[in-house]
Amino acid sequence: MTQMSFLEHLEELRKRLIICIFALFIGMAVAWPLVPAVQRFMQRPLMEPSLTQKWYHSMQTWAVQKYPDLTRRLGVQAAPPKVSPHKLNYMAPLEPFFVQMKISLVTGLALTLPIILYQLWLFFAPALYPKEKKYVYYFIPTGTAAFILGDLFFLYLVWPLIISFSLAYESDTLFSMLNLTHFINFCLRLMLLFGLIFELPLVLLILARAGLVQLDFLKRQRKLAILLSAVVAAFHADVVTMTVIAIPIYGMFELSLLAIRLFGGAAGRTPEAPPAAVPVAEPGVGPPADR
Questions:
Q1: DSSP state, residue 112
Q2: CB 248 within 8 A of CB 197
Q3: In the chain, what's the furthest Cα-to-Cα distance?
């Protein structure tokens, strides 16, 4: 453990921030040619059948194959779902350009995340003991993989569900005119949120290995974890979005408890109660004689 003054801490922080910002700019430049592909992937739920339509078609196909006579009498057919492509609209002249800048920023963040995590680790390294510094070999690759896994989980499962719920309100008298900026901002905000949510087990595991949190303490905070999950999800308006955000947050908390139990070492194990003290008779003093 290295002792540093307050000014030295500020100088170290400034150095790490400059490196992170420089790396982020390089990541944005590398990610710029990838922006159209990323944007098309984000708009994929607008061009494909909704998640509920796919599930309904799968159920129909299964029923027709399993019970052909019954479905024929009932008139059930496994017709492919109808696709109604939706386009995004923009109102300002440079709006698509600024949207591309935002997408390149988040994509560049994902590309440079190992560098940013390494700089974060170097900032806290002077306060760690030598045996704790070896965790960097697990922190950087696991943290990067967790962030990317959170984004993929969101884009493949959560985001189509949100969009299909939103488009379900369309009718003969109601149609959607989705704005480009609002659509992309909403998606990017949730991508960052889910990336951070999937970092929770790693953060709590490191704190447990460092002895800063105990497994028993976290187990007693389950009600608080449910409350905080609901509070974080409440910043989003509709019930579906709140639900699909709150459930993964609490799920990551339970996964954190499992990770601490398996890999938390001595800090993650429940301390055993000390054995009861056995009274020792003083020399020369025996048990009272029976009368």
A1: T
A2: yes
A3: 106
CA-to-CA dists, residue 81 to 55, 86, 111, 157, 163, angstroms = 10, 15, 36, 19, 16
> Which tokens sit at 217?
């303490």
Reported as a single tens digit per residue, the pLDDT across 99-146 is 999 999 999 998 999 998 888 888 877 766 777 677 777 778 888 899
- Backbone Cα Rg of the chain: 27
- Asked whether the beta carbons of 271 and 278 are under 8 A apart, the reply is no
Domain coordinates in residue numbering, the chain = 1-80+91-136
Residue 90's region, left for phi above 0, alpha for psi from -120 to 50, else beta, is: beta
Query: Is the pTM here over 0.85, yes or no?
Result: no
The residues, ordered by sequence, that sit 6+ positions from 169 with a Cβ below 8 Å of its Cβ are 176
Report the distance separating Cα 42 and Cα 101, nearest Å.
15
Query: How much helix, strand and coil, in percent to the nearest 5, is found in the chain?
Result: 70, 0, 30
Structure tokens at 114: 């190992």
